[in-house]
Amino acid sequence: MTTESTPTNLRFLIIGAGMSGILSAIKLREAGIDNFAIYEKADRLGGTWRENEYAGVACDVPSHLYSYSFSPNPEWTHRFSPGAEIQAYFEEVARGYGVDSLIQYGKEITRCEYRDGRWRIEMTDGSSDEGDFVIAATGVLHHPAYPDIEGLESFGGTTFHSARWNHDESLKGKRVGLIGTGSTAIQIVSALIDEVGELSVFQRTPQWVLPVENTAYSEDEKAEFRKNPAAMREIRDEIARQFVDGFANILGDVKSPLLELIHTTCEANLNDNVRDPELKEKLRPDYRAACKRLIMSEDFYDAIQKPNAKVVVEGIERIEESGVRTSDGQLHELDVLILATGFRVDRFMRPMEVVGRGGKTLEDAWDNGPIAYLAISIPDFPNLFMLNGPNGPVGNFSLIDVAELQFSYIMQLVDRVRSGSCKELSVSQDAMDRFDEERKKAAKTTIWASGCKSWYLDADGVPAAWPWTFDRFRQEMEGPRLEDYEVK
Ligand code: NAP
Predict the structure, then answer these.
(1) In what order do the strands lie in the sheet with 109-115?
(2) pLDDT for the residue 395
């Protein structure tokens, strides 16, 4: 399908119908733009929240903050609401704004090429489209990382990744093995412990756990939110300020006293709440709190101390038909093995083949790892803008706020083209190099570089996330510095 466009009728191709894709469609319509398509590879919207249906899935950003600013939700049941509620929220918002019916499902883009001033996309079903702008709303953590462990395929029981939860498999009374101790695994432990027969957690690295209570909103509070949306907005602003000042702004400063406070709070949580001294030491990390993604949980230590829970710290040697063999020679017999082993965080738009100006491929551009100016633009990929692309404040703040800020910034670039003052914009190579150099320099003093391994680090061990304060990100998003762009 090809639709002609003029400077006032430019066509947008939105790739992905998760949080950012839905946002893009709503905001384009708000700007009076109807000439767009939203392509989604799956058969349902929701992105992360569609894909992650594991036991205990919830968001560790407070729900009233993890909502679109323009669509507050009085019905959140908890301070940190479960994944299914978040999925239902996105479905409801998409329906409410009339963008759900615009999503074209089962459309996986395989190729996206800039030719003669326009983007042409091809899909797995043989269809194609053309547009002036591409909004890559393709998400961050969505390609499951499967561990490279000998014999994984020889396991005789059921195996699945946390992001590919097997709902047909009842875990009741079973001997369950869980590989990983990231945010996902910790939530799974709390959710499953009372259901399974035995839970063996294979821990390669212990985690600091910040005790954060997950209170439920009362019916009275929800009624007040329904009656008085301003109260919800106030709560959102208040949570946002606390989150920014108490967390997002300090991650870039390893010496921050607030980071020290988070560390001592985590330490006290471990010391005060884990009784068995041997288990306590198994669970004690040897790095600073928040170096890895900080775990927030009110009940993990309770769950892991139940008689049917076991923390296995000996390394996994191999997986056999009946279970996991560890380096001490022990065989841990299992019925089910869950891989909470995270995601391939360097994928972004890939495996889509993206070809920019002069035949430059994304693989070429990202030869040394994914980078993007302000997590939005890449040199020689004109009029292609990412939401929550590489080097953004992932892990610092609500990705919804990040996407909203980025979208209004992108619209200011788009308006240059709409007004006829230029045809294409992409960050200049100079500005990209400068940004990357400054980012890497700033990354050295972030908490993520304080001596641990995590998915925040790139292949060279440099933190890839936004290293400055969130306030600085907000400021950058106020308006593009056009001198940083190659404008044609
Ligand atoms: P993750 O943080 O990357 O954790 C993966 C876990 O698997 C780690 O404990 C890792 O050990 C372990 N692992 C990987 N390969 C292994 C192997 N071969 N042998 C043994 N252990 C292995 O992944 P995640 O827990 O899915 O979380 C990813 C991100 O998703 C989070 O950091 C967060 O940003 C997001 N998330 C958010 C929420 C939320 O509440 N908002 C919930 C879940 C996830 P090492 O630590 O030793 O590498």
Answers:
(1) 128-131, 118-123, 109-115, 353-355
(2) 78
SS3 346: coil
CB 346 within 8 A of CB 456: no
At residue 4, does pLDDT exceed 70?
no
Residue-wise pLDDT tens digits, 23-81: 999 999 999 999 999 999 999 999 999 999 999 999 989 999 999 999 999 999 999 99
In this structure, the residue with its CA closest to atom 35 of ligand 1 is: 183
Q: Report which ligand 1 atom has the smallest distance to the Cα of 182.
A: 25
Q: How do beta strands 209-210 and 331-333 pair?
A: unpaired
Q: Considering only CA atoms, which residue is closest to atom 17 of ligand 1?
A: 147
Q: Where are the domains of the chain?
A: 12-143+344-487, 152-208+252-339
Q: How far apart are CA 381 and CA 391, in angstroms?
A: 17
Q: Ligand 1 within 6 A of 342 CB?
A: yes
Confidence of residue 9 (pLDDT cuts 50, 70, 90): confident
Return the CA Rg of the chain. Answer: 23
Q: Is 144 in the pocket of ligand 1 (CB under 6 A)?
A: no
For residue 131, the CA-to-ligand 1 centroid distance in Å is 37
Report d(CA 157, CA 95) in Å as an integer. 41
Does 205 contact ligand 1 (Cβ within 6 A)?
A: yes
DSSP designation for 60: S
Confidence band (pLDDT; 50, 70, 90) for 396? Answer: confident
CATH of domain 12-143+344-487: 3.50.50.60
Nearest atom, ligand 1, residue 296 CA: 40
Token duo for residue 149 = 């462990």
Q: Which fold has domain 152-208+252-339?
A: FAD/NAD(P)-binding domain (3.50.50)
Strand arrangement of the beta sheet that strand 316-320 belongs to: 316-320, 323-326, 331-333
Percent of the chain with pLDDT over 90: 97
What pTM, to 2 d.p., does this model score?
0.96
Instruction: Give the closest residue (by CA) to ligand 1 atom 25.
Output: 182
Average pLDDT, the chain: 96
Map tokens 């899935």 to a residue. 57
Asked if residues 21 and 15 have their Cβ atoms less than 8 Å apart, the reply is: yes
Tell me whether domains 12-143+344-487 and 152-208+252-339 share a fold: yes
Q: Is the pLDDT of residue 1 over 80?
A: no
Separation between Cα atoms, residue 183 and residue 181, nearest integer Å: 7
Two structure tokens written together for 54: 């594991």
